[in-house]
């Protein structure tokens, strides 16, 4: 059997001789180098099974040697054992962080060195096939070091840009846009995409570098979705940024996926490279290195969005809470005054809601409130704001809407709600109706406040109640 080859790197002739003698007596084949630069030349040319190195050395120290060995395919398989003194705790720590597999102190016993090398050999991965010219001298090694430093600097620059921009994102959508745009600056790809699977929501965000045929975009989205753990009934939200769909045909078989280690969610990043071979050789390591940081950005955005939602949304119906809908009304009223545009509000109160609680229980009442809110939301535009104003009362804010149109909206909500059936946990279904009051800013003049507008709609809603319920006023 071929003897295990160990490269010993140390600028002290005495220390090097002691290490070499101990290892040779244990049956290892030992190669020596007098400093880090020579050690790099020998390691890249001879490809030893294990490297034993000092940290403090001239020309190239042990940490720089470590970075080169661990980043170069010719030597990445070889475990590295660092030999340090007791006073080198910071250097030892940094050596382990840089990629060293183990360390021993310089006052070690011979059996400790032999045992450490033996364990590292047993756990080492097989050497990879390496193509290309191996270095012939120090200048070749320094050129490789420079290339690795450039690659590491570029990686650090991309990561820094991603974190600086992404950690300031206030929503998951914004964070996805920033993350994909940042990666898109350094990866030549037709398409990049991010997918996140949370218990109730699936988020897909695709960024197109150029217009692609719709079926190609759909194919990439389907493959991204297939990478996620999708629960039945989950709400799928998709977003496309960049150049929209066009007629460019691409081979989606070259789509490459990377896992995103998210908290309490399943995530994936996909890249559709223009040149798959070039991507595999040049860009893939960069994307793999950036993926963990991208996950951090997305997790931070998810948390920020969740906290904002908790402060703005009603926990039961997921509509705006009282404070948030009132603030939104104030903002829309200011905008309406500034540009001379109309604004209307619709306030409604579920009819005989106390009877629902008394007859079926509060859990049934909660189910009815959730269902009624969902029904009402379907009758509104995306530009409208909708919130739970209190108890069983709901308020809708309708920008760019005159009184006559708001009355039509309220009528549509009334009809849809009356036809809806809300399932109960104990079995069966229940139907509810609501009474509506409508008011417009045009009725009150330019100085009207949000409270005055709501008060007018509220008074009309009570007219609907006293007039027989399940109706709209005026």
SSE topology:
Elements: E1 5-9, H1 13-25, E2 29-33, H2 36-46, E3 50-54, H3 62-71, E4 80-84, H4 89-98, E5 102-105, H5 110-123, H6 138-166, H7 172-184, E6 189-197, E7 201-208, H8 214-226, E8 235-242, E9 256-260, E10 266-273, H9 276-312, H10 322-339, E11 343-350, H11 353-360, H12 362-378, E12 385-390, E13 393-399, H13 403-419, E14 422-423, E15 429-430, E16 434-440, H14 450-466, E17 472-473
Parallel strand pairs: 1-2, 1-3, 3-4, 4-5, 7-8, 16-17
Antiparallel strand pairs: 6-7, 6-10, 9-10, 11-13, 11-16, 12-13, 14-15
Helix pairs in contact: 2-3, 2-6, 3-4, 6-7, 6-9, 7-9, 11-12
Explain what you see.
Helix 2 runs parallel beside helix 3, helix 6 packs antiparallel against helix 7 and helix 6 packs parallel to helix 9. The strands form four sheets. Strands 2-1-3-4-5 form a five-stranded parallel beta sheet, with helices on both faces. The model has no long low-confidence stretch (mean pLDDT 90). It contains 14 helices and 17 strands. The protein folds into three domains: 128 residues, Rossmann fold; 156 residues, Beta-Lactamase (2-Layer Sandwich), CATH 3.30.450; 152 residues, Reverse transcriptase/Diguanylate cyclase domain (Alpha-Beta Plaits), CATH 3.30.70. The protein is elongated. The chain is 48% helix and 20% strand. By secondary structure, it is α/β, with parallel strands linked by helices.
